[in-house]
Amino acid sequence: MATPNPDRIENVAQLEDLLSQPTDAVIEMFRRLPGDIVILGVAGKVGPSLARMVKRASDAAGTKRRVIGVARFSRADEAAKLQAHGIETIKCDLLDRAQLEQLPEAPNVVYMAGQKFGTTGNEPLTWAMNSFLPGLVCQRYRRSKIVAYSTGNVYKMKPVVAGGSREMDRPEPVGEYSMSCLGRERIIQYFSRAMQIPAALIRLNYACEMRYGVLVDMAQHVLAGEAVDVTMGCLALIWQGDANVMTLLAFEHVASPPFVVNVVGPEILSVRELCEEFGRLLGKKPKIIGTEAPDAALADGGLAHRLFGYPRVSAGQIVRWTADWVQRGGETLGKPTHFEARDGNY
Fold first, then answer.
1. Mean pLDDT across the stretch 52-81?
2. Which of 264, 299, 297 shows the shortest CA–CA distance to 168?
3. Residues 216 and 335: beta-carbon distance below 8 Å
4. Is the separation of the CB atoms in 94 and 137 below 8 Å?
5. Nearest to 58 by CA among 94, 84, 97, 86
6. Cα distances (Å, whole numbers) of residue 131 to 77, 97, 126, 276
7. Does residue 90 sit in helix, strand or coil?
8. The domain made up of 12-207+239-266+298-312 is a member of CATH 3.40.50.720
9. Would you list the domain boundaries of the chain?
10. pLDDT the model gives residue 117
11. What CA–CA distance (Å, rounded) separates 73 from 53?
């Protein structure tokens, strides 16, 4: 079902089609995986493309299942866009236990709800969303398989020469957002053990697409002649469509205690070199400030690559797509990633 990557992404419709394109492995998995699927927090940056991938893979596999997206749906068009692709939607405040209990049963749950940006100054809500809500969800869906999003931010920074953190490394989060995400993991681990819930924790690192991500931030700064701080000297990233594939394939690895996997690309990338490449592609001289620190927030994606395959889209391809998109004034979400932050404040 996969098609070759295009030289450029012309518009949002083509972008969303690429992000939701399932691989043969995902289609085959949905032939084996029985039952409906509920996606909690579907209206975020990643949820719509993941929900569409589930629907497309299920249809290609010839399996009938309900694909149900749950969110607050604060914008009127969010639910309608999903419904247009055959995805059911339910408006729900997940922190309201009564509303949560009314959600339909499903043997498969993707847990995506959480809060990152806006944490500083609103820490109580961040902890409620990231650490309290997972317990409610585990109790509600204690008879289901749960694949839950986490983040590579639960690791401490490591010397770049040592490579990225691996799944067996001890988490040492910095800042309230990262600590609350470790709280999410611990709560899911507790309920997985106590209730024998098969679960997986997806430690996602820098998912990118044309409207959002670290590369969009860099390209916009370079194009505008704004400074880029390279103190966080290196990073790793992954095309959001490839992250969706790996997340869904984790359903066949759920376990109690939970299976943990880093979802990230294979390359460690220099922030300085990325800015210089954007400068070449955009015809602008990048303004670089700071000096690279010897450590960075990096995770090792080797386990995911062995289990799920390498990403279909390389970092170089994403850079070229991003430069072209930003130069043409393509739509963006207006949500900076703060990739340069080293103090855990977002």
1. 94
2. 299
3. no
4. yes
5. 86
6. 29, 15, 8, 39
7. strand
8. yes
9. 12-207+239-266+298-312
10. 60
11. 20
CB 278 within 8 A of CB 286: yes
CB contact at 8 A, 147 and 119: no
Contact 176, 123 (CB under 8 A): yes
Question: What is the structure's pLDDT at 118?
Answer: 56
Residue with token string 């999903």: 82
Whole-prediction pTM value?
Answer: 0.94
Could you tell me which residues are beta bridge partners of residue 229?
289
Residue 162's identity, in one-letter code, is A
Q: Which residues pair with 339 in a beta bridge?
A: none
Q: Is the peptide bond before 257 cis (omega within 30 degrees of 0)?
A: yes
Pairing of strands 37-40, 108-111: parallel
What is the bridge-based pairing of β-strands 227-229 and 158-159?
Answer: unpaired
Pair of tokens at residue 330: 């393509």
Note the pLDDT tens digit of each residue in 284-312: 999 999 999 999 989 999 999 999 999 99
Q: 158-189 burial by CB neighbour count: b if 16+ within 10 A, else e?
A: bebeeebbebeeebebbbbbbbbbbbbbebbb
Other C-beta atoms lying within 10 Å of the C-beta of residue 338: 13
Residue appearing with tokens 């039952």: 35
Task: Give helix 12-19 / helix 240-249 axis angle, nearest 10°.
Answer: 30
Q: Which contiguous run of DSSP H or E holds residue 203?
A: strand 199-204
Query: Contact at 8 Å (CB) between 121 and 110?
Result: no
Q: Which residue has the tokens 């959480």?
A: 114
CB 345 within 8 A of CB 173: no
Q: Give the three-class secondary structure for 110.
A: strand
Mean per-residue pLDDT over the chain, rounded: 93
Q: Identify the residue with better confidence: 4 or 28.
A: 28
The DSSP element (H or E) to which 100 belongs, if any, is: helix 97-101
